């Protein structure tokens, strides 16, 4: 059985970046909410921690945008939690501050120029700037357009004359409508912009030689790999297939593809119904071939080596290196360089099966079903992902493994609005959040009972953030369908979310719900706070006091309304925690509270494990 301590003791790995000579990998490792950058040799040099104070901004398995190498390999430039960029020599010692920013308007996403003289970066997720790395007092040059609202992921052309980046303007989110822009690095010229239409792009990245620009776009219905430049048609993808090649750009630094060093090939990732695959395509012919299974992220290719973060249903998160060759013609043998989770998960991990069912309106829906030891279990979670735009792919998930080891099955529904199934599937949630997601997930629960994956009285709805919002509406809409519900830091008041959440998501509801105040009645009708007395299923809600994405006031208002109406609700606040947990003791307490809550409300016991507050 997997313990809470095993979850708490692991670390997250992200952003592997090869040194210019291809011999060393720098990567971000995060434990207990604190990140550091480590170095490890491709050919066996032991792992060493490079950064100390200030720490870098934490990464994500598929992104982060935390740092970049200098071209001579003697130092890195990283974005720190204090809002500044810092230069850290690989020989160690204190870093040197490069910018004069603050955490209120941080400098992030550094990209060092090919000659090492300048760094492009983003200020407050809004403006792209270029500044000299030498401390000569020269002010940075601003490149982004005056009306730019969001800018991500600057990338240098091979000659150092141009910078490209990802950009979009509200009320669109990055996955609704977005573009790439290119400008001279000295700020002297006119912006080049891909015309904005009803499609999205991401990850513009120049080839290592020449002027070709690779990026992802979903103009033809799927988020596919494109190459623009020379005689290539911008409307024709390099790889045209009914699979997604990246995730929604919900944060910076996603690297789901990588140019080969000679520009002859591109390695890219493919989402096959939630399962991952690494592929490589010849740029001249467009012929692609499979390389390896599992979800890959953070791709980087130098010399004959490609590095990535790799994970799967039965594969704990690992940093790997492939023998790729300069043009993709290598043997593609894999070496594991580092592992994130502690030892002991492997014997409890299982591959899920893909499942499909019909929604209430007859549309085919998708998901993945995990069964303990591959056999049906009587207890089942309908576990709703957050976002709401997103997906839980078949990658290592310590919490799923924890509950599988206790006899629970887990159904992950990809409701309409989820990624991985093409643009029309994702965009189907536009104007219908709080309605369609709840309906689709409830149909998943009814399907689980009908197909005897579980039984009435043993099915539980669980989700966090936007997933918690869906859980609450699903419970209100379907009394008696679930034995219990668990909502972690949920959205309960849509209008309050608009007014209090961080800038990145402040306009999301204009597309997902409707424009305020025209859609005021819809906001009220779909806010769980206004349906508190309709929730008759036992509910557990957990929230952090320092949550800036969904302030704890949202949960407190819901709990007060349910309690006044005599509805069954339990609530616990975690002091000092934000949108998700950092501290190991909080992780342990969460799992224990959920376990004991389920013991009281689900017919089969859950083997809860430790008591709250202990590991």
Name given to the CATH homologous superfamily of the largest domain: TolB, C-terminal domain
Helix content: 10-25%
CATH architecture verdict of the largest domain: 6 Propeller
In whole angstroms, the N-to-C terminal distance is 14 Å
Strand order of the largest sheet: 28-29-31-30-32-33-34-35
The quaternary structure here is: single chain
Number of alpha- plus pi-helical segments? 10
Q: What topology emerges from the helices and strands here?
A:
Blueprint: H1 4-9, E1 12-18, E2 24-31, E3 34-41, E4 48-49, E5 67-69, E6 75-79, E7 85-89, E8 96-97, E9 107-112, E10 118-123, E11 127-132, E12 141-142, E13 150-156, E14 162-168, E15 179-184, E16 192-193, E17 201-206, E18 213-217, E19 224-228, E20 257-259, E21 265-272, E22 275-282, E23 288-293, E24 295-302, E25 305-312, E26 315-323, E27 334-339, E28 353-358, E29 364-370, E30 379-384, H2 398-404, E31 408-414, H3 423-427, H4 436-450, E32 459-464, H5 466-477, E33 484-488, H6 494-500, H7 508-512, H8 520-526, E34 539-544, H9 553-564, E35 569-574, H10 584-601
Parallel strand pairs: 30-31, 30-32, 32-33, 33-34, 34-35
Antiparallel strand pairs: 1-2, 2-3, 3-4, 5-6, 6-7, 7-8, 9-10, 10-11, 11-12, 13-14, 14-15, 15-16, 17-18, 18-19, 20-21, 21-22, 22-23, 24-25, 25-26, 26-27, 28-29, 29-31
Helix pairs in contact: 4-5
Structural account:
The chain is an alpha+beta fold and 615 residues long. It folds into two domains: 249 residues, Neuraminidase; 235 residues, Rossmann fold (3-Layer(aba) Sandwich). It has ten helices and 35 strands. It has an eight-stranded mixed beta sheet, with helices on both faces. It has a four-stranded antiparallel beta sheet with strand order 1-2-3-4, with no helix packed on it. A four-stranded antiparallel beta sheet has the order 5-6-7-8, with no helix packed on it. A hairpin with a 2-residue loop joins strand 24 and strand 25. Helix 4 crosses helix 5. The longest helix is centred in the last third of the chain and has 18 residues. The protein is globular.
């Amino acid at each position: 059985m997997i313990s809470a301590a095993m979850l708490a003791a692991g670390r997250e790995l992200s952003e592997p970046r090869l040194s210019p000579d291809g011999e060393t990998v720098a990567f971000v490792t995060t434990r207990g909410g604190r990140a550091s950058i480590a170095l490890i040799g491709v050919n066996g040099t032991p792992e060493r921690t490079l950064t100390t104070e200030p720490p870098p901004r934490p990464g994500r398995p598929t992104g982060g945008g935390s740092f970049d190498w200098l071209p001579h390999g003697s130092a890195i430039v990283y974005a720190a939690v204090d809002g500044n960029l810092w230069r850290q020599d690989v020989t160690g010692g204190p870093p040197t501050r490069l910018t004069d920013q603050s955490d209120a308007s941080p400098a992030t996403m550094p990209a060092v120029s090919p000659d090492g003289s300048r760094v492009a970066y983003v200020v407050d997720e809004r403006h792209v700037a270029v500044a000299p790395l030498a401390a000569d007092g020269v002010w940075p040059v601003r490149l982004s357009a005056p009306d730019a609202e969001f800018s991500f992921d600057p990338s240098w052309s091979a000659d150092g004359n141009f910078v490209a980046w990802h950009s979009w303007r509200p009320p669109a989110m990055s996955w609704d409508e977005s573009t790439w822009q290119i400008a001279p690095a000295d700020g002297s010229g006119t912006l080049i912009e891909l015309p904005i239409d009803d499609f999205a792009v991401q990850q513009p990245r120049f080839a290592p030689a020449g002027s070709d620009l690779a990026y992802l776009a979903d103009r033809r219905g799927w988020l596919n790999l494109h190459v623009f430049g020379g005689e290539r048609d911008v409307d024709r993808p390099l790889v045209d297939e009914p699979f997604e090649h990246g995730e929604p750009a919900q944060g910076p630094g996603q690297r789901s593809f990588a140019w080969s060093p000679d520009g002859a090939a591109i390695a890219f990732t493919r989402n096959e119904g939630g399962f991952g695959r690494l592929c490589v395509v010849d740029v001249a012919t467009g012929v692609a071939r499979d390389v390896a299974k599992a979800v890959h992220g953070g791709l980087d290719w130098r010399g004959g080596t490609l590095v990535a973060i790799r994970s799967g249903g039965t594969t704990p998160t690992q940093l790997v290196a492939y023998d790729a060759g300069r043009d993709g013609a290598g043997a593609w043998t894999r070496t594991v360089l580092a592992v994130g989770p502690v030892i002991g998960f492997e014997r409890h991990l299982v591959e899920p099966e893909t499942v499909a069912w019909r929604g209430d309106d007859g549309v085919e829906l998708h998901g993945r079903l995990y069964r303990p030891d591959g056999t049906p279990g009587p207890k089942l979670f309908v576990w709703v992902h957050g976002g709401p735009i997103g997906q839980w792919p078949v990658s290592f998930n310590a919490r799923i493994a924890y509950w599988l080891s206790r006899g629970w099955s887990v159904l992950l529904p990809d409701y309409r609005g989820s990624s991985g199934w093409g643009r029309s599937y994702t965009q189907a949630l536009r104007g219908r959040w709080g309605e369609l997601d709840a309906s689709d997930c409830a149909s998943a629960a009814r399907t689980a009972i009908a197909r005897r994956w579980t039984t009435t009285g043993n099915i539980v709805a669980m989700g966090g953030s936007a997933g918690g919002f869906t859980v609450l509406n699903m419970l209100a809409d379907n009394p008696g369908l679930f034995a219990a519900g668990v909502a972690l830091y949920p959205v309960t008041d849509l209008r309050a979310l608009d007014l209090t959440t961080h800038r990145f998501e402040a306009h999301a509801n204009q597309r997902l719900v409707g424009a305020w105040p025209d859609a005021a009645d819809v906001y009220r009708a779909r806010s769980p706070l206004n349906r508190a007395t309709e929730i008759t299923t036992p509910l557990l809600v957990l929230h952090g006091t320092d949550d800036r994405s969904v302030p704890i006031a949202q949960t407190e208002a819901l709990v007060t309304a349910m309690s006044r109406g005599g509805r069954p609700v339990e609530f616990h606040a975690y002091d000092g925690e934000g949108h998700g947990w950092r501290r190991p003791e909080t992780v342990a307490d969460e799992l224990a509270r959920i376990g004991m809550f389920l013991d009281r409300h689900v017919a089969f016991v859950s083997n809860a494990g430790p008591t709250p507050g202990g590991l």
